[in-house]
Design brief:
By secondary structure, this protein is mostly helical. The protein is about 50% helix and about 0% strand. The chain is built from ten helices and no strands. Helix 2 (about 35-60) crosses helix 3, helix 2 runs antiparallel to helix 4 and helix 2 (about 35-60) runs parallel beside helix 6 (about 120-130). The radius of gyration is 25 Å and the shape is extended.
């Protein structure tokens, strides 16, 4: 069972599977993800990104641009904030499974209100734009809803124009130009020593039981890696 997205095209005749298409304009009513799960995820993601921007501004750095690795890390962190109660409520909203046929946990709408990120988003937008917000939280959460994300049929000429490199590659703003700096073993060692020293200087209320052992273990592994790298050098490497 699939919805009517343009990319959902059955190009071959299936023998063992029968495909049913949902009626038009019913996605938000029949699919739990569209009934609120995606919206909850996007709201928490926007909040985390705004916090990232504000920290960068406070540090006096340039406006950040996320690379793919950072976006993946954000996604993993944000998904933890999409509560099981939100997911249950979205399933209940669609009424796909009758309530009397599944022992649903009790739905507590008020418990979700305590973790809704919209008020924080409004405050962050005001902080970044000097108390003159250009968007509401709802507008910012759905700012990319109009972007084309489905498969679109294009002709050969359009494909050639899209894959042809720009005339001046230095002026390209393509995300692929953003590279993650490779950290050397020696740099990692110094940073790890500083972090270990920082943790050792904190009080017991801040430090967790496994913090020091884990940092010390990491420090030892970095030192071993440096030693291993040095041992692998050949005599000819020095000439």
């Amino acid at each position: 069972m699939v919805d009517n997205a343009a990319s959902h095209v059955i190009r071959e005749e299936l023998e063992n599977v029968k495909v049913h298409f949902l009626p038009p304009n019913t996605t938000a009513h029949l699919q739990p993800c569209d009934a609120g799960i995606i919206n909850s995820f996007k709201a928490h993601y926007r909040k985390l990104y705004l916090q990232h921007i504000l920290k960068t501004i406070d540090a006096g750095d340039e406006m950040p641009r996320l690379n793919v690795k950072e976006a993946i890390d954000f996604t993993a962190e944000v998904w933890k904030n999409v509560t099981s109660q939100t997911i249950v409520n979205c399933w209940r909203k669609t009424e796909i499974v009758p309530i009397n046929e599944w022992g649903w946990p009790n739905s507590d709408v008020h418990s979700e209100d305590n973790v809704r990120p919209e008020p924080d988003i409004e405050e962050l937008i005001s902080s970044i734009f000097l108390n003159s917000p250009v968007l509401t939280a709802k507008e910012y959460i759905h700012i990319d809803d109009s972007l084309e994300i489905e498969e679109v049929s294009i002709d050969e000429t359009t494909i050639i124009e899209q894959i042809r490199p720009p005339l001046d590659p230095e002026d390209s703003d393509d995300d692929c130009d953003i590279e993650v700096e490779k950290i050397s073993h020696s740099t990692a060692l110094e940073k790890c020593k500083s972090l270990l020293q920082y943790v050792e200087q904190q009080d017991l209320n801040f430090v967790e039981e496994l913090d020091l052992p884990r940092l010390q273990s990491l420090l030892q592994r970095i030192q071993a890696k440096i030693l291993e790298t040095r041992q692998q050098k050949r005599l000819t490497d020095f000439f």
